[in-house]
Design goal:
Helix content: 10-25%
Structural class: alpha+beta
CATH architecture: 3-Layer(aba) Sandwich
Number of helices: 2
Shape: globular
CATH topology: Protein Transport Mog1p, Chain A
Number of strands: 7
Strand content: 25-35%
Order of helices and strands: HEEEEEEEH
Number of domains: 1
CATH class: Alpha Beta
């Protein structure tokens, strides 16, 4: 599945981003990624989707940045942050969408210029995009 198909053109415009572009993903064979960005606009916002086909969301409970069990659009998952960026400017959601398969939805505000940005706000923005992605995923597989 092409993760760039997980958001429609209308949904991408609603987020205020440009069309998605495929991105490198090293999460195992068959895993793919897509990034939607509003660059060069400010505040800067980036959303991404990664399809991970070699393990479930529980793998991320051991995150070095902390992990919280969540549910998004009826799917169980893990909410965490990347250890490569400031957690107060981003959020990573790992959703169990099938046995041993994860949809990773992220939001990042690299410059920290989104009004009121903190990890909780970033997770709300990631969750909003993830809900859209999951709804579209359901339509794509049925």
């Amino acid at each position: 599945m092409d993760p760039c198909a997980l958001l429609t053109s209308a949904q991408v415009r609603e987020l205020g981003a440009a069309p998605g572009r495929s991105s490198a993903n090293d999460d195992g064979p068959g895993s793919r990624a897509c990034i939607w960005s509003n660059f060069p606009s400010r505040p800067d916002s980036d959303w991404s989707a990664n399809t991970i086909l070699n393990h479930g969301a529980e793998y991320y409970l051991a995150s070095t940045t902390g992990a919280q069990i969540v549910q998004v659009a009826g799917f169980p998952g893990v909410q965490t942050a990347s250890d490569l960026q400031d957690p107060s400017k981003q959020c990573v959601l790992m959703l169990d969408v099938a046995p041993g398969q994860t949809l990773q939805a992220t939001y990042q505000n690299s410059h920290g210029d989104y009004p009121g940005i903190n990890h909780q706000v970033a997770c709300q923005l990631a969750s909003k995009a993830a809900e859209l992605m999951v709804a579209n995923l359901r339509n794509l597989v049925h």
